[in-house]
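Below sits the subject:
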Amino acid sequence: MTSVETTGRAVADSRGSAPARPAARRLLPGTGRILIYQVLVIAGFFAIWEVAIRAGWIPVYIYGQPSGVVREFVKGVTDGKLLIDTWVTTQESVIGFLIGSLFGSAAGLALWLSPTTAAVIRPIMVALNGLPKIALAPLIIVWFGIGIESKIAVAAIITFIVAMIASYAGSQEVDNDYVRMLKALGATRFQIFRMVIVPGSVPWIASAFRLNIGFAMIGAVVGEYISAEQGLGQHIYYAGTLYNLNGVWAGIFALMILALVLDWFVGRAERLLKWR
C-alpha cells in the first residue's frame, strides 16, 4: 500500500470513527416513561375527540368520530383493502426513495470531481430545488400512465434533487487540510475523492436519506391523488369524495403508521452509516 493510500485511509477512518457501541443494548433511562407519556397523550386526544362528538360539541359529519375510525380501520384490515393500499404505497415510496436517493447522492458527489460542471449545474440545482415537484406530477402521470411506475417516478424525482444537493454540500464541507495533505503526498483527485470526500460526506448523505423517506411518501401519495387505482392516497381521495370522514382518517392513520415504520428503518441505516 502506498503512503498516499495509507494516509488517506487513516484520514477516512478518523472522519468516520465513532465511540464503540455497548455489546448489550439496553433501553436508555427514561425511555419507558417517555413511551408511557406518548401513549397517554394519544389516548387522551382520542378520548377528548370522542367525548366532544358524543356531547355534540362538534359535528361528526365534519370531524369524524374515533370509534367510527376504528371500525373503518378494522374493516379495511379485515377485507384486505387497506392492507393492499398500504403495500402499494410502501412499494412506490421505497423504490422511489432508493432510486432517487442513491443516484442523487452519487450525482452530487461526482460534481466535486469537476468544479466547472458543478458551477454550470448549480443554478439548475437551485431552480429544481425551488420548483414544487408536485407540479411535475401531471406530466409524469401522462408519460408513465396511472400504474405504479408513475408514482415511483414522482418519488424518485423529488428525492433525487434533495440527495444531490445534500451530498454536494457535504463534499464542500470536508476539511481542506486533509485534501491539501493528500495533494502534498502526490494523491490524484480521484484518490482524494475516494479516501476523504466520500467518507466525509456520509453524515450529510445519511441526513438526506432521513428527509427523503418523507419526500418519497409525499411523491407517491400525490401521484395517487391525481390518478391511481390503488394506494393510500387513492383510498383517502375516494373516501373524501363520498364524505366518509372516518374512512379518510383511517387512511391518514395508516399513512402515519407507515411513515413511522419507514422512518425507523431509515434511522437504523443512518446510524449504521455514521458509525461506519
